[in-house]
Specification:
This is Short-chain dehydrogenase/reductase. By secondary structure, this protein is of the alpha/beta class. The chain contains nine helices and nine strands. The strands form two sheets. It has a seven-stranded parallel sheet with strand order 3-2-1-4-6-7-9, sandwiched between helices. It has a two-stranded parallel ribbon with strand order 5-8. Strand 6 (128-133), helix 5 and strand 7 (171-178) form a beta-alpha-beta unit. 39% of the residues are buried.
């Protein structure tokens, strides 16, 4: 049976590949992009099953207006994929106020507002799935990505709570956490102006690694998209889906280290209780 999807950030990367994959299998897609002509060739190929919705994730009024129009026109949208986002690259001291505001407005506030906009519609149709494309960076942190991590850790915390709120309405949430994947993410980074004082620090090492392409990228974009779609279609979907061997290894190592640190603080934690 044909499924209808709404996908943000559908003009490039995982969003575009997911849109192409779903259309090829016979589904309908509401593809959300910033430029009206971004998917003109694809729309010409699938005129009856691809609807292009144009708005910027930082414009909450336009986002809500377009989401309402999409549900009104489509009738039912079973899957909502929050995929729009990008990376801000630079040490916390290096990034500008404007860069911070845009990063949070796009990755975090925009994703929050998308969820808020679709929830009334999903409740009214008595269920649906929200898929948040996060990152291993939603639970693991690296130098020079502090604001990107703030946005991803933030949206994951938001959805931890929302998932509990909407479960009674038949609404499931899936958080996809890809590791390093060949998607063009690096080429789309917003770079801060570097400070020389960070050259011989972990931030400088990461900067050089990005510049010379020495970081290991094992993730396959198509296989990542296929896994996200499979999770969204599962009868009982997982809440979190690590994608790629590096993502799994990094997440497991980070969580084990965090748990060990917390366990060492047991006596301190209990000492803060009232008698």
């Amino acid at each position: 049976m044909m499924t209808t999807w709404l996908i943000t950030g559908a003009s490039s990367g995982l969003g575009l590949l997911m849109t192409q994959t779903l259309l090829a299998r016979g589904d309908r897609v509401v593809a959300c992009v910033r430029r009206a002509d971004a998917l003109s060739a694809l729309q010409a190929h699938y005129p009856s099953r691809l609807h292009v919705s144009c708005f910027d994730m930082t414009d909450s009024a336009a986002l809500r207006r377009e989401v309402d129009a999409a549900f009104t026109t489509s009738g039912v949208i079973e899957r909502v994929v929050s995929n729009a986002g990008y990376g801000l690259f630079g040490a916390a001291e290096e990034v500008s106020d404007a860069q911070i505001e845009r990063q949070i407005a796009t990755n975090l506030t925009g994703s929050i507002q998308l969820v808020r906009a679709v929830l009334p519609w999903l409740r009214a149709q008595q269920g649906g799935r929200i898929v948040q494309v996060s990152s291993e960076g939603g639970q693991v942190a690296y130098p020079n990505f502090s604001l990107y991590h703030a946005s991803k850790w933030g949206i994951e915390g938001f959805l931890e709570s929302v998932a509990q709120e909407v479960k009674p309405f038949g609404i499931d949430i899936v958080i996809a956490e890809p590791g390093p994947t060949q998607t063009g993410f690096g080429a789309g980074l917003d770079h801060a102006t570097p400070l020389a004082v960070y050259d011989n620090t972990p931030a400088g090492e990461v900067r050089r690694g990005i510049a010379n392409g020495s970081f290991d990228i094992k993730g396959d974009a198509q296989r990542t998209v296929d896994a996200i779609i499979a999770a969204a279609d599962a009868p009982t979907p997982p809440f979190r889906v690590p994608l790629g061997s590096l993502a799994w290894e990094h997440l497991v190592a980070s969580l084990r280290a965090r748990l060990a640190e917390i366990e060492r603080q047991r006596e301190v934690a209990y000492s803060a209780d009232r008698d």
